[in-house]
Fold:
Amino acid sequence: MPFVTIDGITLHHLHVEANGAAHPIVFINSLGTDFRIWDEVVTRLSGEVPRLVYDKRGHGLSDIGGGVRSIDDHVDDLSGLLDHFGFDRVVLFGLSVGGMIAQRLYARRPEIVQALILSDTAHKIGTAESWNSRISIVERDGIEAIADGVMKVWFTPDFHAARAAELAGCRNMLVRQALPGYVGTCMAVRDADLTDSARRIAVPTLCAVGDQDGSTPPDLVRSLADLIPGARFEIIRGAGHIPCIEQPEALTALIRDFIASLPSGAENHG
Structure:
């Protein structure tokens, strides 16, 4: 199992090389998940492009350390991880809170980002009231108390009906996350407003969303795309909040098409 310690935080990761000159795609996963959510996509991209997946702080097998207080804590970890591998340019693919981490890393280190793929995310997600309510429930009763409701926004009714074993596995993944990491990341999302910085994104950007996403609906993701100059917006049919699990083939096709559209040696004007 590959682990690396960045400023006292041990991060679980998997780095897969590939032939060719393509810049690595770095996958940043959502709240309450670990990097296994990318398995079907990463497998489909085998040999085409280098990939890095990792468990963000307080999730999966990574440390919680001193906790999570803001999106910048996650950005610090990712920034250190990129430096550890010596990456000079990357494509960041962020899902949900991962998309917020990607946006914030671009704001801090635009020179390292070739392009952004922002899936089922936004510049501002939820309200303080909605996040405080969730935090209160899970601190009192555990993640188990919200798990069934989360599954309804993560996946479509068709997924619930036809893929019960996968649904059960994803539910297990959620409820087994460390409570401090989950709560801290809820607080980080609650307090993050990336509206102004989204307007200053100056690299090619793809914003994608499941057509039945109950957490960050298509209109919200479209509002992010509208803020980013020249951003491309795509809807993934038959998917909820986690298209990489529910519709990996469609998502991989979008990734391939977007990567192929990037100018070789594109300069970052951010």
Summary: Confidence is low (pLDDT under 50) at residues 265-270. The longest helix spans residues 71-85. The radius of gyration is 17 Å. The chain has one domain: 3-261.
